[in-house]
């Protein structure tokens, strides 16, 4: 599953990941591979990514998250 | 005929001009790299955003969620957002943008109202007696989304208040350093591209209407921000090319003048020599 986090200014993150946990508009949501197509607004907070047991966070100031096929795209307002 | 000294002064002055234009070209070149990066970096965001919008729109039916920004109305007032530089010395760029705008205005039957970004666009609107909804000058060379946010809000407000019934953006698309294409593109009502083939059932959270309601203004702001970035890159590259050209012309002029000055100097010496030789010959005889 590939995660891409982009802002108007730059691409913050673009890597293969195991799980994405994002602050969705309706509460925290975890996305695993083979997730159904989804489009949601996200709130300000941290996007947590796990990759080979390693965890990292990407702070975002709200935006949108789209899951389509094996691709997760986050359009962040800014960081 | 100018004297040797006058020509020498002229050469110095042209040399100074060449120094200035060369410095301007170098400044523009260094700014260009940054503006170009900003414009290309921003492209990925706006492309993703456009794809999202068309995905959502293709899956929501009109009645389910009424979106004012998608609504096509009878056009009784046309709005145009002119993105032009604040300053001149950009070769033909400013004239080209403004010509594209006035061609657009000529094709409109409804009265045109303007939102101007940049002094050149504002001057154009004033000169042609167009109604100005809002004006933004002095945005600078490194516009951030925060700088362009109020523009987006003003445009969306004008559209939702029915002050205007459609909106277009006019800006110079940055193709490469030597080519900037002035374009006039529709902005509002939002017309998503029909290219998205993956209209598989999306899940929307909280719901499609809500997502769209938040996505659309953001999309409009992104388009505007992108136009400003492109315009900026175009401005810098046009200025760089124009100033390089000016430097070349100035140097060529210095060469011509130097040649002229040398000829003139030699002529003077020859005349003086002839005088002396003539004088000596007259004394001897």
Please give a structural write-up.
The complex is a heterodimer of chains A (79) and B (285). By secondary structure, chain A is mainly beta. Chain A has a single domain (2-76), classed as ATP Synthase, domain 1 (Sandwich), CATH 2.60.15. Chain A contains no helices and 7 strands. Chain A has a 7-stranded mixed sheet, with no helix packed on it. Chain A is globular and about 25 Å long. Chain B is an alpha/beta fold and 285 residues long. Chain B has a single domain (22-242), classed as ATP synthase, F1 complex, gamma subunit (Pyruvate Kinase, Chain: A, domain 1). In chain B, helix 1 (4-59) runs antiparallel to helix 5 (208-284) and helix 4 packs across helix 5. Classes of the chains: A mainly beta (79), B alpha/beta (285). At the A-B interface, strand 5 and strand 6 of A face helix 1, strand 6 and helix 5 of B. Strand 5 of chain A pairs parallel with strand 6 of chain B.
Give the secondary structure arrangement, pairings included:
The complex is a heterodimer of chains A (79) and B (285).
Chain A: E1 2-6, E2 11-16, E3 19-24, E4 27-31, E5 38-51, E6 54-68, E7 71-76
Parallel strand pairs in A: 1-7
Antiparallel strand pairs in A: 1-2, 3-4, 3-5, 5-6, 6-7
Chain B: H1 4-59, E1 78-83, H2 93-107, E2 112-117, H3 119-127, E3 131-136, H4 145-160, E4 166-176, E5 179-188, E6 203-205, H5 208-284
Parallel strand pairs in B: 1-2, 1-4, 2-3
Antiparallel strand pairs in B: 4-5
Helix pairs in contact in B: 1-5, 4-5
How many domains would you count in the coordinates of chain A?
1
First-residue to last-residue Cα separation of chain B: 35 Å
Largest interface: A-B, 25 and 28 residues
- Kindly name the structural category of chain B: alpha/beta
Please identify the oligomeric state: heterodimer
Distance between the termini of chain A: 23 Å
Query: How large is the radius of gyration of chain B?
Result: 29 Å
Order of helices and strands of chain A: EEEEEEE
Shape of chain B: elongated
What number of domains of chain B? 1
In the sheet with the most strands of chain A, the strands line up as 2-1-7-6-5-3-4
Mean pLDDT rating of chain A: 86
Widest beta sheet: strand line-up of chain B:
3-2-1-4-5
Strand content range of chain A: over 45%
According to DSSP, the number of beta strands of chain A is 7
CATH architecture of chain B: 3-Layer(aba) Sandwich
Series of secondary-structure elements of chain B, N-terminal to C-terminal:
HEHEHEHEEEH
Q: Return the CATH class of chain B.
A: Alpha Beta
């Amino acid at each position: 599953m590939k995660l891409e986090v982009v802002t108007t200014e730059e691409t913050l993150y673009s890597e293969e990941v195991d799980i994405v946990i994002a602050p969705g508009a309706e509460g925290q949501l975890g996305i695993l591979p083979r997730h159904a197509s989804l489009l949601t607004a996200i709130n300000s907070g941290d996007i947590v990514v796990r990759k080979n047991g390693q965890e990292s966070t990407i702070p975002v100031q709200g935006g949108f998250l789209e899951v389509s096929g094996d691709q997760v795209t986050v359009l962040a307002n800014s960081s | 005929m100018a004297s040797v000294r006058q020509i020498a002064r002229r050469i110095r002055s042209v040399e100074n001009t060449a120094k200035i234009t060369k410095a301007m070209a170098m400044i523009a070149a260094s700014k260009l790299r940054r503006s170009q990066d900003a414009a290309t970096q921003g492209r990925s965001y706006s492309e993703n955003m456009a794809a999202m919008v068309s995905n959502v729109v293709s899956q929501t039916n009109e009645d389910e969620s009424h979106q004012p920004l998608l609504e096509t109305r009878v056009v009784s007032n046309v709005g145009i957002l002119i993105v032009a530089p604040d300053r001149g010395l950009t070769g033909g760029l400013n004239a080209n943008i403004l010509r594209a705008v006035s061609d657009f205005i000529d094709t409109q039957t409804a009265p045109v109202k303007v939102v101007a970004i940049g002094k050149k666009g504002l001057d154009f609107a004033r000169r042609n007696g167009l109604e100005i909804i809002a004006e933004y000058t002095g945005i600078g060379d490194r516009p951030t989304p925060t700088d362009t946010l109020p523009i987006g809000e003003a445009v969306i407000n004008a559209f939702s208040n029915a002050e205007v019934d459609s909106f277009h953006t006019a800006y110079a698309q940055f193709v490469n350093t030597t080519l900037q294409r002035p374009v006039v593109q529709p902005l509002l009502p939002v017309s998503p591209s029909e290219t998205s083939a993956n209209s598989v059932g999306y899940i929307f959270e909280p719901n499609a209407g809500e997502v769209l309601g938040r996505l659309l203004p953001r999309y409009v702001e992104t388009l505007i921000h992108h136009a400003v970035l492109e315009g900026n890159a175009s401005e810098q590259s046009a200025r760089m090319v124009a100033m390089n050209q000016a430097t070349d012309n100035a140097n060529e002029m210095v060469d011509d003048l130097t040649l002229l000055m040398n000829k003139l100097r030699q002529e003077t010496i020859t005349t003086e020599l002839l005088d002396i030789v003539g004088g000596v010959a007259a004394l001897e005889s």
